[in-house]
Design a protein that fits this description.
The complex is a heterodimer of chains A (605) and B (375). With 605 residues, chain A is an alpha/beta fold. Helices cover 34% and strands 24% of the residues of chain A. In chain A, α2 (104-117) links the parallel β7 (95-101) and β8. In chain A, α3 packs across α4 (161-173), α9 crosses α12 (356-380) and α12 packs parallel to α14 (428-439). The N and C termini of chain A lie far apart (61 Å). Chain B has five helices and 30 strands. Classes of the chains: A alpha/beta (605), B mainly beta (375). Chains A and B meet through α3, α4, α9, α11 and α12 of A and β5, β10 and β27 of B.
């Protein structure tokens, strides 16, 4: 069946967002969006009320009748109802898991990757070699009360003793789920096949045990799919079924409800695959920052649980240090007062910056939150550890170990930012600057923001596997992502290499669609913005002989790049970006860069 | 009339305060519906399963895990005392025996022939839940807990640390902008809940903790002073489990900020009353703010009470507090709520409110206002 209209909601912890997609002239486009407060908590305690309110707004804005007797009308009949309704959810704190593996850096890490990839928050990773005594592990499990546990360990056919020990620890802890006192805790076993019977014996009675294929059948290969799918199933059957109103919501949707970050991740994965590109996506929220990446076809997601812009803003300050935040602020500020101001943002998380000074401070904190989250991501997104590698004589000079980060900034093609501080920055130039300063892209990188955070809904849409509509739903998700979801900021060109102050780094010649040509030179320490629309632009990039723009030191590139609402940003500030230590010089430098990209109003040097 | 939902803190002269007092696991409720309770009365109790200790018998005795049952000299379910003999090898001709002793007082719960691990569980941990405030048992949730209700004054703070506490309310400053200084803290304040004006310094607060003051209520506190008290940097505002003896309730925010006049006047009115406070704060979805409950006698009630749970939006005439720079800490009255978005100095487009502060009208984002709910 060809879909003509799609309704999708995302039930967040504070807001429920609904979008209506319609097919017009054989093209899927976002028609309208609506939102309403989420109603999981008292006094409503029924998620569907918030969903209906958000849909009602969509109804009013689109003039299309979508609701009847407090239910969504499906399928579409003329100008009434929609063909498909889907939803994601992160209400009630999302999915909180604990994972366990025998060796922390091997099966422990694989289990963590599976849980994160499925959209969960990982509260702790237990491992036989994590240095904790059994009773310490037991009290940790009892204290955390996760929604679900993923137990892995051992390669197929290997020793069963260690994973059996972990199961005994779980059994001794006899953990109770976070929600609801009356059901057994779901546990997924994805370890050594040989240990399945022992695990059944140990955990079968006291937990709701499910057994899936080993997450690491052999050392050289991860098999995350079965665990990830099982997590999604159990999220629906157990965790969500305990949350108020979800049973009703589940009966309305045409596809299983997905955890919000799981849906976003799968969309990013799909885009990287379809376009054969390397992608980094970031969602910076009030409490947490999620980073998704696809490099060399491998998908990774990390959640920095306590790096965010409001609820955990003080933690950004604690982890980054006040000096690191202040280095992005082009003015002198009393440190004690700044501490209190940031503290006040934490206890009143919904406030917005009224003065320019407040906005600049907030965006300085965002740079640090993003930078720290990305460090965590790079440390996690690595190649598999513990694999034996064949070495040749040439490797003797380049001792590359296993477990290296997959994140390669030079190879990165597209960076997508979302979350209030990026999506709602008053000027798009500010979003571009935050992304560049925090992530330090190298070579040629396209930048974009998800203006209204539509990725969760598009992610769940792309995952519909119902026969007959799967293909059309996928097409709709990709078309809307391309045309309506992203705001293309432009492209960052950042030559990398040892730089000397004032030295010439890159010559860029751009030939626009209308035929006119511009040539720009960039010197060390400069940041330049060239206005250019989102259209293919022929670019000839000639780096200085010790600089690399993507093809190697001193090697020129002829390519096609895209502008955007900001344009093309040429960053000659070097990698890593070092800011002057001396305060006056730093302020002068920051002000210059700010003016070069028209970042803030009325900044005077 | 324009109307806007704005989160607010309650400063209520008279209301019905209800508190759920629930066990972490199912147990026994020990009071009856309608019963009058005091703050320290136990309302429900249970036993948490004891802590677990594991001993790897196979490793210690250097035997195959499959053989562990042969060496155990106690059976599953047996009570053991610490250092009691629990397993022993036969040795050679009765000599060279190796043995294992019980790691804790408890019960032998299980043993595994796969890993050789024996599990011992310590005695159950009794848990009791008290009534927290003077009042009546309004309802009972069988096996789980009760709801206590009381009529009285109810004040919410913006942020606090430390858990629940009770004591006599004692105002120790003469005005809402006076700070609590170390010289104001004396041994006589032990067991009292003291109220200050705009600020308490780290030194004064530490002195109050040392003097066993039952709690501190004040307008402002320095964010950086939390670290020496808590022993860590507070990154996320989730508090309540700190064991500091003297909970702190901050009514306005970080820095030196005059306590709101209604808050101060209300506390002053009930100087000398027995009150319950809770510093626990959770700023996440499902927000918990610190609080001061002042149960009142019938003679002190006027009958104009209001349930603490009701929340109304702001409208023209509402009293609000500004909660972000550049007017942080000011109290004002809403003049109007223009419907259209307006551009701020930061160029952020927001919904605004016109607020009158000391005779002058300012335009302020609605998100930067907090309603002061009074009666």
């Amino acid at each position: 069946m060809e879909l003509n209209s799609i309704l999708a909601t995302d039930c967040g912890s504070t807001t429920t967002k609904a979008i209506l997609i319609e097919k017009v002239n054989d093209e899927y486009r976002l028609r309208v969006r609506g939102e309403a407060p989420t109603t999981v908590e008292a006094p409503f305690e029924d998620v569907t009320k918030g969903v209906l309110n958000a849909v009602m707004e969509v109804e009013e804005l689109s003039g299309r009748k979508l609701l009847e007797d407090g239910k969504i009308i499906t399928p579409q009949n003329g100008n009434t109802g929609v063909d498909v309704y889907v939803s994601t959810s992160s209400a009630g704190g999302g999915l909180q898991m604990m994972v366990a593996g025998v060796v922390k850096s091997m099966t422990g890490e694989s289990a963590e990757r599976a849980a994160l990839g499925a959209g969960s928050i990982v509260m702790d990773v237990l491992a036989s070699n994590d240095g904790r005594l059994p009773h310490e592990k037991i009290s940790r499990i009892r204290q955390l009360r996760p929604d679900m546990i993923l137990l892995s360990g051992g390669i197929d056919g290997g020793t069963t003793k260690h994973v059996a020990e972990l199961a005994e620890i779980l059994a001794a802890a006899n953990p109770k789920p976070r929600l609801g006192q009356n059901y057994k805790l779901p546990v997924i076993y994805a370890g050594n096949k040989k240990a399945q019977d022992t695990i059944k014996e140990t955990l079968g009675e006291i937990t709701d045990l499910d057994i899936v294929d080993n997450i690491r059948p052999v050392l050289e290969r991860e098999n995350l799919g079965p665990s990830r799918d099982k997590i999604h199933d159990l999220f629906m059957e157990h965790v969500m079924a305990q949350a108020p109103g979800y049973k009703k919501l589940m009966s309305w949707t045409d596809a299983p409800i997905m955890p919000t970050p799981g849906a976003v991740g799968s969309l990013i994965e799909m885009i990287a695959r379809e376009e054969n590109i390397q992608v980094v996506g970031v969602d910076i929220g009030g409490a947490t920052t999620d980073i998704f990446s696809v490099f060399e076809g491998q998908f990774n997601r990390t959640v920095s649980a306590n790096l965010g812009m409001s609820y955990s803003v003080c933690n950004v300050l604690a982890e980054a240090g006040l000096d690191n935040v202040l280095r992005w602020v082009p003015m002198d500020i009393n440190r004690g007062e700044l501490n209190n101001r940031i503290g006040n943002k934490m206890i009143r998380p919904t406030t917005v910056p009224q003065s320019l000074e407040e906005l600049i401070i907030e965006q300085a904190i965002a740079r640090e939150a993003l930078r720290l989250s990305f460090i965590q991501h790079k440390e996690f997104a690595v190649s598999l550890k513990g694999i034996q590698k064949e070495r040749t004589i040439s490797d003797a000079f380049e001792q590359s170990a296993t477990g290296e980060t997959l994140v390669n900034m030079m190879a990165l093609d597209l960076m997508v930012g979302s979350g209030g501080v990026l999506s709602h920055a008053p000027r798009r130039e500010q979003a571009a600057r935050m992304l560049i300063d925090a992530f330090l892209p190298e070579g040629i990188t396209q930048l974009a923001v998800d203006s209204i955070f539509m990725m969760p809904q598009l992610g769940v849409l792309a995952n519909i596997d119902k026969e007959g509509i799967a293909e059309s739903a996928r097409r709709a998700a990709l078309e809307v992502f391309e045309k309506d979801c992203l705001i293309r900021l432009g492209t960052c060109l950042a030559p990398v290499g040892k730089i000397k102050p004032g030295a010439q780094l890159l010559t860029t010649t751009l030939t626009f669609k209308d035929g006119h040509t511009e040539t720009h030179e960039i010197k060390a320490g400069e940041l330049k913005m060239i206005q250019a629309p989102y259209e293919p632009i022929k670019a000839q990039l000639i780096p200085a002989k010790n600089m690399d723009i993507g093809a190697g030191k001193g090697v020129s590139i002829d390519t096609e790049i895209y502008g955007g609402v900001v344009g093309i940003l040429i960053d000659g500030r070097g990698r890593p970006l070092v800011l002057p230590a001396e305060s006056d010089e730093r302020i002068h430098q920051l002000t210059r860069w700010s003016q070069a990209v028209n970042e803030y109003p009325e900044i005077q040097s | 009339m324009a109307h806007s939902y704005t989160p607010g803190l309650k400063v209520l002269r008279e209301t019905i305060v209800t508190k759920d007092r629930v066990l972490p696991l199912k147990g026994e409720v020990v009071v009856t519906q309608g019963q009058t309770v005091l703050p320290s009365d136990v309302v429900a109790k249970t036993d948490l399963p004891g802590n677990v200790q594991m001993v790897n018998i196979a490793n210690i005795l250097n035997i195959d895990p499959g053989d562990v049952n042969d060496v155990m000299i106690i059976s599953i379910g047996t009570a053991v005392t610490k250092d009691e003999l629990i397993a022993e090898t036969k040795g050679l001709f009765g000599f060279f025996k190796s043995s294992v002793k019980a790691p804790v007082d408890g019960t032998f719960e299980s043993i595994s022939e796969v890993t050789g691990q024996a599990v011992f569980r310590e005695a159950p941990i009794p848990v009791e839940v008290d009534a927290y405030m003077r009042g009546k048992v309004e309802s009972i949730l069988p096996e789980e807990g009760v709801t206590i209700a009381t009529k009285g004054a109810f004040i919410q703070g913006i942020f606090g640390i430390g858990g629940e506490s009770q004591g006599e309310l004692k105002i120790i400053v003469s005005s809402r902008d006076e700070e609590i200084t170390p010289d104001m803290i004396s041994a006589e304040l032990s067991g009292k809940i003291i109220v200050g004006g705009s600020f308490i310094s780290l030194e004064a607060y530490q002195k109050a903790i040392a003097a066993k003051v039952a709690g501190v209520v004040v307008g402002g506190f320095n964010y950086s002073d939390l670290e020496p008290i808590l022993g860590y940097t507070l990154g996320v505002a989730i508090t309540g489990s700190e064991d500091i003896g003297t909970p702190l309730v901050v009514t306005e925010g970080y820095g030196k900020i005059k306590m709101g006049d209604r808050t101060f006047d209300l506390l002053k009115q009930f100087d000398g009353h027995s009150v319950s406070i809770n510093g626990a704060t959770q700023i996440r979805a499902g927000v918990i703010r610190p609080e001061i409950v002042i149960p009142l006698k019938d003679a002190e009630l006027t009958g104009a009470h209001k349930r603490a749970a009701t929340t109304e939006g702001i409208k023209a005439g509402s009293l609000v507090r500004i909660i972000r720079a550049p007017y942080f800490g000011f109290l004002g009255t809403i003049v109007s709520l223009p419907p259209e978005l307006q551009k701020m100095e930061s160029e952020t487009m927001v919904r605004v409110a016109e607020v009158e502060i000391d005779g002058k009208v300012y335009t302020i984002p609605r998100s930067n206002l907090e309603m002061v709910e009074t009666n």
